[in-house]
Amino acid sequence: MKKKCLIITSSGGGGHLQAAKAKAHELKEQDPSLEIIQRDILLDWLGKRLGGFLAGCWNFAQKRGDVAFQKVMIRNMHLVGLFTWMPTFFCAFFLIYFQDIDLVIDTQPNGTSAILTAFVLAEKLKNRARRYEKVLVDLPTDKAGHYFQPIKKMKAAKRKSIYLITTKPLLSDGQTEQDFWDEHTGLPIENILYSEFPLRPKFKDIDPLPKHKSCTIAPRISSDSEWQLIQSVLDKGHLDYDYCKPYLDITIPPNAYVSTLMLGSQPAKKATLSYVQSFMELKKENAPIRDDLLFVFCRSHRTKKSLLNLVCNQILQADCFSNSLTIIPLTFQDDSVIAPLFARSDATLTRSGGITSMELLSIMGGRIWIHSESKKSDQLLHGIPFWEKGNAKYLEAHKGAHIVTPSIFKNKAKSYFENSTVFKNADQSPACASSNNV
């Protein structure tokens, strides 16, 4: 009999969806005959009106960089959970029971009690064993309470049905792993399964690239208007590229310093523009003999008010642009672009979302800056949503990451731009000598 797997995810943010996609790919590789059913707890079970409204509020807050509103939403998640408990329970139960689901994989933190109650009831009525796995899409720290608290509040008998898929936790002084899981989840240690990060395929296939090695990526361009904007900015710099609709082939020379600016799936507009400005000013002030590439990731481009349009106009109008800097603005790209770019980058400036943090831990060997919305330089963690604070602390401990805000970035990044080492390759002409092939 063909086995069936239900993957539960959420449209609130991009990490849950990416993790669901990664788990589906992993399961299909292990068992091609496995039937996978995926449901979005917001859009599919709560409906496009309520679920779409909640997802829209979340994504809107991310675009605006409104950390306070995001915190309010998370703190009131239990109230939404009470209101949506019954519809979540019935949707989960009927699907698990009537579709005869063997494995449930849950990559998001909402509705855990309702989903698990439905799972246990279906298991009991069918009188056969099933498996429920909760995939932690944030790094295991004391700040991951949005995942842990619903589990800890359950009765011990029900908790035994949960298998938590995660990595080793960030421990405080004198704390053991058993202490950590007892305190935060109450799960027996045998239900904690350390596993590989739920990363998209390319992040698992790629090895960390030696810095200053030639590399080619092919981002997808979605429309003619998008290409016209990107081309106008590329022509202001010096980079070898070739556009064959819909792909832009970009060759990164071995002697170029590569920086990547990517503030999540819904990047904050003001912060992105501020960092681009800082990069241009720093580059103009420092190390004119070295070639720098800056990749800037924006949202999708649909109107003249899009982030891509704002970034491109900002660059085109800049009077502080260095002739040894090339900026490559792009819309959202998949892992075939992001994975090799992270592996090749000398520096990244990102948010500390769960999946992004895992991607950086896996293949990033350069400098890591983490964006904060704080207005006070001595309270940097206050500008990071509390569930992402833990990820930031994890990256600080394991990768030596630095937290920055747009206002302090220039000071923090000055040493990076003052390093004027040029990496030479006898078979490769300097980046500034490359020609544009359109």
Q: What does this entry look like structurally?
A:
With 438 residues, the chain is an alpha/beta fold. It folds into two domains: 4-198, Rossmann fold (3-Layer(aba) Sandwich), CATH 3.40.50; 203-433, Rossmann fold. It is 44% helix and 17% strand. The strands form three sheets. The chain has a six-stranded parallel β-sheet with strand order 2-1-3-4-5-6. It has a six-stranded parallel β-sheet with strand order 12-11-10-13-14-15, with helices on both faces. Helix 16 links the parallel strand 13 (347-350) and strand 14. Helix 12 packs parallel to helix 14, helix 13 runs parallel beside helix 14 and helix 13 packs parallel to helix 18 (409-418). The longest helix is centred in the N-terminal third of the chain and has 18 residues, at 47-64. The chain is globular. Mean pLDDT is 87; it is low at 423-438.
